[in-house]
């Protein structure tokens, strides 16, 4: 394992697979992430505008470099249908050397 402080995992929820696939394609085409995993069947519970909500969503899990985070956020905000989409970046601590190299080689 190697230190991975230059990398991040980004979580984004979307309303359905169609939107998640569109976002994933745009993100990969722009080389802002090396990978986008789409996890359908997520049930989200939250409070929005003072009302408790429950919706079905798709979770996107993306691997990227911290350098790409601002551009990734800009693209997601441009294409995402939600007024306030979830965009959360989690720092990585360690990772497999070959996998981390692949992330670097995959992003612009």
What is this structure, in a nutshell?
The chain has 108 residues and is of the alpha+beta class. The chain contains 3 helices and 6 strands, in the order ββαββαββα.
Per CATH, the class reads: Alpha Beta
Mean pLDDT: 97
Could you say which structural class the secondary elements and strand pairing correspond to?
alpha+beta
Share of β-strand residues: 35-45%
Distance between the termini: 24 Å
Helix content: 25-40%
Can you lay out the helices and strands and say which pair or pack?
Layout: E1 2-3, E2 7-14, H1 17-29, E3 35-48, E4 51-65, H2 69-79, E5 87-91, E6 94-95, H3 97-106
Antiparallel strand pairs: 1-6, 2-4, 2-5, 3-4
Describe the structure.
- The chain is α+β, with helices and mostly antiparallel strands and 108 residues long.
- It has one domain (2-106): 2-Layer Sandwich (Alpha-Beta Plaits), CATH 3.30.70.
- Helices cover 31% and strands 43% of the residues.
- The chain has helices at residues 17-29, 69-79, 97-106, and strands at residues 2-3, 7-14, 35-48, 51-65, 87-91, 94-95.
- A four-stranded antiparallel beta sheet has the order 3-4-2-5. Strands 1-6 form a two-stranded antiparallel sheet.
- Strand 3 (35-48) and strand 4 (51-65) form a beta hairpin.
- The longest helix has 13 residues, at 17-29.
- The radius of gyration is 14 Å and the shape is globular.
- The mean pLDDT is 97.
